[in-house]
């Protein structure tokens, strides 16, 4: 079993130290390095195999450059150029010594893996030197410098480790030729799982040393999906493998007719049964699985892996998988520097269970949170910020925003829950005018609009008439049509204004009117009815009106709140370590 991996200068992993265990879940947002961690283990495995094949596991003096690995040998890490393996493509350092001519020194990828085999601990480090676009060198990691540097010996136990990588499911081909095992590995490495599923099943079915595996695999699928998987058939005349399944009603169909969730589960199980006593690297095993299935399949995978004597290392986005793994398996969060999260003196898991991993991930990534009533508020704020050329515009492009529906208790619950996991989190909450004081223990800075709600700040006759003349800022009507629509809007405004007066409600431009419910919604309904059109301007579209507010007519209070957003965001401390 692998217990630890240390990686330097590989892809996104500049310098990371990751604890491993019997079952490991690497969790985090897109492009955070989870897949790179799996690929680093795959590269270590390739390097170790090549070294043992050509050097018999022995270390070598520095003058022997190590073993050459061709780019095409990287079946689990397909890249068009070998320098893509290095962090930021940085393969050489250029420097001067004693003010003489500059010279270069190779930047090496270091991968050190620790393990435990039959009660004995071991460590195996390899370094990788760039040669050219098509190849690089691999040798045991140096422990000392000099003309004849001491190098770490290759433990016998490390050489017994098998590693198998499985990318996400890519569908299923209508026809599948019979492949040799080497070709299956290449296709898997290239992500072409659609080309190998039947072959994996055929390997399991035909393996005389594991006759019960096929029966177990089909039994799992029948329990999960109620479908009976037929044995794969090799059609020698066509050189292809076919597979069918039987539905509960007795209808027999080709496996290509099955659902994507069934195919994903079959691929995962086939990969496990085809690779016993192996370190299994699974990239997004929850792909194509509905939420209810994700927990069920993860439990099954860990159970089968344990029975097969395998170690499971999975990269996932799923909160369901995270919550399932949190209590019993190793969970590594890829936010900032990859770090383990568990109950060992940490409140992170408590926050994750109560708030959710996505919320925790955003808190760690941004360091601040914005609370609003709903998504319309965000789009209106963004429109105002764009018009003003305010620095908040950039922050509002991709903020960590949480919608609370003008309920201060929801802000308090969410903010303090996240604070359990991220002690330096800061936040700001913008509410409609609630006519009551905000609680002292809100956590985030809280503000109420002086007007009834944010939509009041775009209720201006000139804005509504501008909308009538050209429904979008860059969508001009002809002069006659624009005049007609403006007249219709003016009549609609007058009619709604009179109705509000009759009902004893504030006029449309008052800071006290509930702008959405009492004015804008009935106005838009009446306006488009008079035009003979369906209502094209609902609450979710009011940001269009915000973009028509002239810069000099935007209330100074809006700029003040945007200033507050910038100030709070500037205090944020995103996770870096």
Can you walk through the features of this model?
The protein is an alpha/beta fold. The chain folds into four domains: 2-20 and 30-158, Rossmann fold, CATH 3.40.50; 164-354, 3-Layer(aba) Sandwich (Rossmann fold); 361-451 and 557-571, Rossmann fold (3-Layer(aba) Sandwich); 455-554, no CATH class. Helix content is 37%, strand content 20%. It has 17 helices and 23 strands. The chain has helices spanning 34-55, 181-189, 197-206, 211-225, 260-274, 291-307, 319-326, 348-355, 357-366, 375-388, 392-395, 408-419, 461-469, 479-502, 515-531, 543-546, 556-571, and strands at 2-10, 13-19, 23-27, 67-70, 92-95, 103-106, 109-117, 120-132, 135-140, 163-166, 228-229, 233-235, 240-242, 244-246, 252-254, 279-283, 311-316, 330-333, 339-340, 368-372, 401-403, 426-431, 445-448. The strands form six sheets. The protein has a six-stranded antiparallel beta sheet, with helices on one face. It has a six-stranded mixed beta sheet with strand order 10-16-17-3-18-19, with helices on both faces. The chain has a four-stranded parallel beta sheet with strand order 21-20-22-23, sandwiched between helices. Strand 12 (233-235) and strand 13 form a beta hairpin. Helix 8 crosses helix 9. The longest helix has 24 residues, at 479-502. It is elongated, with a radius of gyration of 31 Å. The two termini are 27 Å apart. The mean pLDDT is 87.
